[in-house]
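During the first year of the project, the team set up a workflow for recording each protein of interest as an amino acid sequence followed immediately by a discrete structure-token representation. This format lets reviewers and collaborators read both layers of information side by side without switching files. As required by the reporting guidelines, we include two representative entries from the current panel. The first entry is reproduced here exactly as it appears in our internal archive.
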Amino acid sequence: MKNKFLALILVFLTFTGCVGVSSSGIFGTGVSVALDPRSVGTQIDDSIMQKNLSTRMVLLDKKYLLSVNSKVLDGRIFLTGKVDNPEEKLQLTKMAWETDGVRSVRNDIRVKDEFNFKLSGLKPDETFFVVSSKSFTTDETIESLKLAIEWSGRMENFVAITANKKEAKKYNIPKIIEFEKEIGGRYSIWSEISKPAFHWTDSEVPYDVNKLQFISGGIAADEDLLNNADYLKFLKNLVYSDIWLNNSQGKNTRAVLSYSWRLRSLADYVQQLEMESLGKQPNKNSPFKKTGQIIFGGYGPTAQHSYFQLLHQGTQNICADIVAIKDNKKSLAYAQAMTQSKLLSLGADGLLNNEEKINGDIPLNLFLLNKLDEYSLGYLIATWEHRIYITAVMLGINPFDQYGVSAGKIFTRKYLEENGG
């Protein structure tokens, strides 16, 4: 019978504790003194501690012989490997602290619960993995890939979508779909990176039609940018207000709120798009010394039970974007979008006691889509990209680099190399 494949997009699986399990020196060997700054006595003490801890772990459960590694340096215990649940990690931490002579414990053991949860009820021969990564070197993606390969054991069930084919080949993935390396990760939604999203859709419409409609919406926005004076005026007003609010009014934080369940993750997408693109040092020749704003937000009906209290009565200096769909003006979500837009920006007269009064002083952009389909989503995202690009031009900064992100990766790898990761 033909297998039914379930696609798991590994780029969204994140795990804490990315320290590896290989090391050198005394780890897994007898006492080593060559090229070691520790005294011979300290090396012997560390070796005894390491063997004592390893023995107790194996006595607790034989599986730890292969799944967990321990290393001791100057009385400091380092634990790496994988366990099935958080309770095991805590138990091993406690055991390490009970070792005679221990000075500190660093537990970088990974918990497989999240990965196991994603795969619960699935069979390796019926599960298909799509690994989406531009560089194919992102730590979280590679850690997830390693777990998936270990669980599956079937490389024919893996596909990579990347701009770095050479790196993907290192993992023996037989099918590699490429896109141009010049495409920035946060702008790659128009490339092959989005293939899984359109291929595994609930819609009965074929993949090619869905993707074509999405791209057509983006193209329409591009053409409007070039040829439609009203669209350009709208964008300029949007950009000018962003820069003015940030630089002149001190509103360096913007809430992005969607009032459609299907757009519940829009704020997360916009957060990366804006903060990676505009989160740069100011151009020394620019009159604007504040660049990108802090972006947060989420699904409006849920957010109303969390940070809306601060928006309405708090003391923070905030502005907002609200996105809603006009296809059902009688729906609760649409009513909430309209109500909150007015309350946030204009406040309220009547109905409220003194202690219930709200600020009503939040500058707000209201985006109303006639309907939500692939075409309108493409148009909306392309418009947001135009907003960011024009802002970057006005500020005199480059929206396509991300050296701050790169710095984190560089020094994380340096740390791991220096600490046996």
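The second entry, processed by the same pipeline in the following quarter, appears below.
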Amino acid sequence: MKIIREIKENLFDGSPLDHMPEYAQKIWPFFTAQLVVRVFYFFLLYSSIILFQQWDAGMGQKTQISFILPIAWIYAVGFPTGMAAIKIFFIATTLAASLAPQKRIFRVLAFIAVLEFVSLHFSVLQLDVDWYTLILTAFFFIFLPNKWNNPFKFPVIERQKFLVVFWGAQTVNLLTYSMSGIGKIVGAIQQGLIGQVTVFEPKAAALHSADRIITTAGNAPLAPFVIDNYLIVWPFFLALMYLLIFSIFVAFKPRLHRFWGFGLLMFHIANYLSIDIGFHAHTFLACLLFLLSPFAPIKVSVKEIAYDLPIFGVGIRNLVEKEGNKKFSLCLILAIILFFVFFYVVEQNHDKQILEKGLFPLTSNHMQKVKHLNINIGEDLREYFVYSPENFKNPAPVVLVFHGGGGPIGTAELMAQYRKIIDFYR
């Protein structure tokens, strides 16, 4: 019972759900929320036009496509007709939802259009997770009350229903970030058990950047800095992991909404600059739902933000307040220090093993001088890399590296480390 009481005091007491009647009594939380909803549908309208423009040139002739269930009907009409129908439906419904988002029928149709578009995109281009939160948000917005175009005449009880649904959309978005962080923790445990580098170690961000550059031949501006200065990047990388894992708790802490929204914005910018992954829809939605959160106080102090931080907030509060539990705070500080020391030692041990094999620690120089090429083998398009080091002796042997067991080409690079061997013996 004590644990349940602690959870209630730390999560639900002071949360938007706890104070929803008070929010509904005021006009500005509802006004802000309905404005955010309108902007959301305008973004969908903008996306429906821009994204399909990018498709028109190269996708019209595709035929051998395996369509997933929501668009299985395309088999009956053919790809060109099906694509045109989804395009028109997407634009028309998001336009209607933008102009009259207070009508549920338009929100339902907009949700169906987004689902159809993402299904088509997934079937043709294997879309990443960038649009999934937009589907979830569009689904939640279906349950908003009707006829809220005039906020001053909208009944208080209906405002409360509106804000509860809006909070649900915020919460499910934060849940996706937490699921991502927890997935990385589970993966780290599995990697640690077989002796691989985990996300907790100093070189984790550097290896992630290197793998992304190798796999995609990308051009992330900060990747060389991340690789060559991994110790500087390490604390920031761990902070981003913390940001992801505990995102779901922020739904219950309105004073953290804008702070966490800014953190998620920085997370996506860091992703783009270091591994060349944009997640544009995620970035937009994080800014829209949390930087403009209707539940966030107009003014909030640094002290209030620090006190509300998951786990660390308890330690800070106990350390600052006179009657706080100083032992808990000191134990938390000691645990953080031991964490950094332990994984630094683990990292040094991995570097020692690399040197004992006659290889070199990872640097940004090994990510350069690579050609990313393709070749057709029958009906399959294969990709391969050609690495030619500078100042090699001619004639020189050709080293062929093959990988099996599935996995991306970048994984084979990191496992074989052939570039380091070539650089050493050239």
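For the second entry, the following points were noted during internal review. Strands lie at 370-377, 380-387. The radius of gyration is 26 Å. Both points are flagged for discussion at the upcoming steering committee meeting.
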